[in-house]
Design goal:
The protein has 4 helices and 13 strands. The chain is globular, with a radius of gyration of 16 Å. It has a single domain, classed as Glutamine Phosphoribosylpyrophosphate, subunit 1, domain 1 (4-Layer Sandwich). Helix 3 packs antiparallel against helix 4. Helices cover 34% and strands 34% of the residues. The two termini are 16 Å apart. This is Proteasome subunit beta type-2. One of its GO terms (biological process) is proteasome-mediated ubiquitin-dependent protein catabolic process. One of its GO terms (cellular component) is proteasome core complex, beta-subunit complex.
C-alpha cells in the first residue's frame, strides 16, 4: 500500500515517502506517519513494510551508523550505508529476526562529489547508483513516466515537477487513498525538507 519515490541526478537526490498508515488492508488509520530515518548530515533512508519492522529496523540502522560516526570521527558514505543496510537485511533473512522492509537510501557523497540513490528490498536485493527508483505497488505506474521524461541534467524544479507527476499518477490510478507525502532533497549544500505534497 505504501509508496516511496526517489529521483537522482549528479547534483541532487529527491526522496518522497507517503505519510499513511494502513490497517486491515486499505483502511487509512493515520496520515502523519514519518517513514524517514536520517542516517547522516547528507544521508537519509525512507523505509516501508511491516510497521513494527520498519520502526525497529529504521531505528537500529540509524543508531548503528551514528555509533560508527562517533567511534571513527566521520560519517559513512551513501554507498557504504547502502551496503550496510543490504548486508543487515541479508543477515536477518538467514535468522529468525528477519525484517520485512523495503528502503530507499539517498544522499550526497562529498568525496565523489555526486548524489547517490539506492534501494534494498526485503530479500536484500540491492540496487545502487540509480537515476530513479520506486518502492511500493504505485511504482508500476511511474516507471513509464520516468523512462520518457527523466533527464540527467534536470534542474531541481524539473525534478520536483517530475516527482509530482508520478505522485499524481499514483493518486489517480491506485485504489488506496494516500493523502500526503513527505519530500526531502539532498545536494552539495546539505539536507532540506520541502513542503509536503497533500491531496
Amino acid at each position: 500500500m505504501h509508496f516511496l519515490v526517489g529521483i537522482s541526478t549528479e547534483n541532487y537526490v529527491i526522496l518522497a515517502a507517503d505519510k499513511a498508515t494502513f490497517a486491515y488492508g486499505a483502511i487509512l488509520a493515520d496520515s502523519e506517519n514519518d517513514k524517514e530515518y536520517r542516517l547522516g548530515k547528507k544521508l537519509t533512508m525512507m523505509c516501508i513494510g511491516e510497521e513494527g519492522d520498519v520502526a525497529q529496523f529504521g531505528d537500529w540502522t540509524k543508531r548503528n551508523l551514528q555509533l560508527y560516526s562517533v567511534r571513527n570521527g566521520y560519517e559513512v558514505s551513501p554507498s557504504c550505508a547502502h551496503h550496510f543496510v543490504r548486508r543487515s537485511i541479508a543477515e536477518g533473512l538467514r535468522s529468525q529476526d528477519h525484517y520485512t522492509v523495503d528502503v530507499l537510501i539517498g544522499g550526497y557523497d562529498d568525496k565523489e562529489d555526486k548524489a547517490f540513490l539506492g534501494s534494498v528490498d526485503y530479500l536484500a536485493n540491492g540496487l545502487g547508483q540509480q537515476p530513479y527508483l520506486f518502492r511500493g505497488f504505485c511504482g508500476r505506474f511511474c516507471y513509464a513516466i520516468m523512462d520518457r521524461e527523466y533527464k540527467k541534467d534536470m534542474t531541481e524544479a524539473e525534478g520536483l515537477a517530475l516527482m509530482n507527476k508520478c505522485i499524481g499518477e499514483a493518486k489517480r490510478r491506485f485504489v488506496a487513498n494516500i493523502p500526503g507525502y513527505k519530500v526531502v532533497i539532498i545536494d552539495k549544500k546539505g539536507y532540506r525538507k520541502l513542503d509536503d505534497v497533500l491531496f
